[in-house]
Amino acid sequence: MLIDRRVPNLPSGVERYRVPGGGAAVVPISAGDRITVIDVEGRQPCEVLATDASGRVDPGLIGGKVCGIADGLRAILASGSDSARVVLGGLRRRNIDLGEAKAVRLFGGDSTAGAQEEFTAQGLGVLIVAAPGEAMTPEAQDTATEIEVRIARASPRSEEFALLPDPLADARLDFEVPRSSARAYEVKEGDYIQIVDLFGRQCSDFHCLNARALQEGIERDLDNTVTRTLLGRGYPGPGLFAKVFDQDFQPLVELVQDTCGRHDNFALACTAKYYEDMGYPGHANCSDNFSDALAPYGVKRRRGWAALNLFYNTGIDHNNVLYLDEPWSRPGDFVLFRALTDLVCVSSACPDDIDAANGWNPTPVHIRTYPAKERFSRAVAFRRTPDAEAQMTKETAFHPRLSALTRNFTEYRGYWLPSRFNNEGPIGEYWACRERAVMIDLSPLRKFEVTGPDAETLLQRAVTRDVRKLSEGQVVYSAMCHETGGMLDDCTVFRLGKDNFRFIGGDEASGLVLRELGQKLGLRAWVRSSTDQLHNLSVQGPNSREILKQVVWTPPAQTSISELQWFRFTIGRIGDFNGVPVVVSRTGYTGELGYEVFCHPKDASTVFDAIAEAGKPHDIAPCGLEALDMLRIEAGLIFYGYEFCDQTDPFEAGIGFTVPLKTKTEDFVGREALLKRRDHPQRQLVGLDIADNEAAAHGDGVFIGRNQIGVVTSGTRSPILKKTIALARLDVTHAGPGAEVEVGKLDGKMKRIPAKVVRFPHYDPEKTRVRS
After folding, report:
1. N- or C-end of the chain: fewer Cβ atoms within 10 A?
2. Contact (Cβ atoms closer than 8 angstroms) between residue 581 and residue 398
C-alpha cells in the first residue's frame, strides 16, 4: 500500500530531513537512493558518514571522498544536546560504533545559500549528517545553521522510512493498528503513550479506563464533558491545560507532546448509526471496534463511545454547526500522553471513507509506550514556514531560572515563555516596570546575521528605513514590506561593521525573504539564522540603567552603559574583563527606559543571576507576557496579527515614521505601492478611551450608528491611566481626536460601549521616558 500525503512541494518518493545547526541526524538508506545534501543558508560546514547494515563505517556506501576524522560530529555527540541524545539513541539501536570514523566534509567557507552535493547509496545502511559549529559570541556572527537532506527513494517503502519516526526511547510496546480496526492495551501509571499518524490525515480515536476501578467491576473512563469543563477549552494541549478526566473528575492522562495541534473532543467515535443514516449499513465503525477490543477486559458494549478523536479536524461555525474537514496531520505526526493512573487504553485507525474525516482514504496508525523512567519535555510542533518540517517547542536558555518562579508558560513562536509569575501576577509585574525594573525573556525574537560585501545593499532594498545612514553601534527600527506595501514584519537592524548587520524581527520567514531577495538581485550577501545562538533578556524600567551599570563592563573603546543613547548598542562583558560576553542595546517594548542584553544560551544563567543580584536593591522583578501586553498597548507599540499583517501598510499600522519616502530615494520592496498608499490613505491606527470598565478586545467592531468604521486591534485596562484603553484601526474620515464612536460587543449590535478617539499613544506620547 503506497499512499503519498506529504506536503505538496515534495515530489512523490522524496523525503526531507532537517539537521539543525550544531546538531546531527541519522537516516536509513538503501541501494539506489539518491541523496542530496543542501547548505540552506550558506557557509555551514557539514560532515557526512555512512555505515553498512552491520554498523561498520563505510564511506564507499555513498561514494564520497573521505576528508578526515569526524571531529565536528564527535563534538556534537559529546555536547549532551537534544540533538545529540536523539542521534546517540539511533546509533545505539543500530549497534553503530563511530570510533575514529572518518567523514566526507562539505561546504563552509564561502559556500552559497542552497549549495548542494549529491550521492547515490550503494547498499543498505545508515546515513549520518552533522552540521558542526562552535558557540557564537554575541558580537561575532559565526553562527551554525541548518543542513537539509533530501532522499529520493529507489524503492519507496514509506512505512519503513519517513512515516514512522524513530522511537523517542526504548519502547515497552510497539505495534501497528491496521486500518479500520482498534486495539486495546494496558499502560502502567507514569508510562507514556505515543500515537503516530503514519501516512497523514488519519483519525485515531483514543479512549482509556481506570484499570484499578475496572478490576472492581467499575467503569470509570474518559469523559469529554468533564474534561472540557475543567480545562475551559475544546481539547487538551501540552502545558497547564493538558489533562483528560473521568466522570469523578479524576485525571487519567495528560498530553505531553503534540505535533499536529488539531483534534476533536466533542463528537463520539464514529458509530454504526452514523453510517446507517448516511446509507451505508454494516459499515465498520470505531465504536463497535472499541467494544470488540475491550470485551476481554469485561467492559460492557456501548452503541457509541466517547473519545479524544486525535487528528480529527472539526470546529463549530458561527451558525453553531459542528463541521469537519480533512485533518491537519502530516505523515509521522504524533501525540504523546503520560498515564496518571493504571489504564486500559484503546486506539482505533478510523474506518471512515465516506467523507473527508480521513482524507477519504483510511490508513493504519502506530502505537508505542515508554517506561515512566523516561523524561519528555512538554512541547507542541512549530513550523517556520507552512512547508517546513515540524520542530518541537524549545525552552529558552533562561527557562531554568524562570521556571522556578512560575508554572504559567505559553507557547510563542516555537518557545515556552512565561505569561505570569507567582505572587505578583500581571498587575504587580506591570507596576514593577513602570516604577522600578523588570526582566523579560524575549529570546524567541528571530535573529539573522547579514554579512558580505553586499549586505548593506540587501538591507537597503529589503527594509523601509535608510540603512546607509546607519552608523556602527547604531540600531534602527523599520518595517519590511511586500510589493503591495503590506507589512511582512517589523524589525530592528543593528550595524556591527562596514559589511556586518544583525536583523532582529518577529517572523522566521523574514530570513527566507531576505535570502530570496539577495539571490534575486544577484547580491553577494549571506543571511544566516542565529536565533538559537543568541538569547536575550530585556531589562526595562526607570532603574534599569542603574542596575546594568553595576553588571556590564565595557572596554575603553566601547560606549559605557551610562553613555549609551536610545537605539544604540554596546559590546561588553558581565562583571569584568574575564566575564561572559554580551551585547547590550538601548531598546525595548514597554515605553520605559530599557535595555536588551544578548548572550549565548550557555551563558544565560550567569547573565540572569548577575542582573537579578544587582537588581535586588532596586526590587527588580520578572515580567511575563500578560503584563508586557498591557505595557506595550499603553505605549502604542504594535504586534503582528493585531496591529498589522501582510494586508496592512506601515501608515495604517501607526509606524509611518519608518517609511522616509522623501529622504530615501533609492528603490526598496514596496516603495511604489507605499507612495500611492501614503497619498491615498484609507485607514489609520488611533487610540481609544473606553467609557466603561469593560475591555475592548481584539476584533471588536468600532461603529458610528449602524455603520462599522473600524476594528479594535488591542485593548487593556490601564492601571496608570486608571481607565480602559484600546488601539483601533479606523476609516480616516473618523480618525480625528475627539471623534465619538462605539465599540460593539456580543454581535456588535446588541451591546455598544461608548468610546472616544484620543491622542496616540496613550502613555508618554513625547517618548520622554525612553529617551531619559
Report:
1. N
2. no
